[in-house]
Amino acid sequence: MRRSVAAVGRASVGQVWERYAVLADWSSWSPPIRRVEASGARLVAGLTGVVHGPPGVRIPFVVDAVDEVAHTWSWHVSVGVLRVDLEHEVLATSAGGSAATLVVDGPLPVALLYPEVARIALTRLVAG
Asked: From start to end of the chain, where are the E strands?
């Protein structure tokens, strides 16, 4: 199942991109994330790591692609045989802010439910 979600806010594209690109910042805009352990400090293709969520929740990930100029990146998370692919993009808005989009491709119920959780994080991500 494939679902999309987006949020629009006052933060500039550059601000939003940096909030994505620096993994140590993820917990500041995504409430479920407590911390991120990764093979690097910044998004790059091939980066691997683990997102630590609520106590006991550890989600391994691999960053598949990053385009800093286009402000896009994709990654996948895997838990056992469950795999979810996520595609992110940051766009400028006519009001001078930005829009952050996310496409989630994975099995039910993850692809059905996760976009609703992600909407909260994306709203905080683009906030000015």
From this structure: 2-9, 35-38, 48-52, 58-67, 72-79, 82-92, 98-105
Burial class (CB within 10 angstroms; exposed 0-12, middle 13-18, buried 19+) of 54: exposed
Give 68's DSSP letter: T
| Separation of alpha carbons 53 and 57, rounded Å | 5
In whole angstroms, give the CA distance from residue 64 to residue 42: 13
Domains of the chain, CATH where assigned: 2-126 (3.30.530.20)
- Structure token digits, residue 5: 């979600």
- The residue assigned the tokens 């790059």 is 44
The predicted pLDDT at position 128 comes to 81
Instruction: Say which residue the tokens 């140590």 belong to.
Output: 24
Does the reported pTM lie above 0.85? yes
Chain position carrying tokens 């601000």 = 15
Q: Which two tokens stand for residue 124?
A: 């905080």
Half-sphere exposure for 97 (CA within 13 Å, toward CB): 13
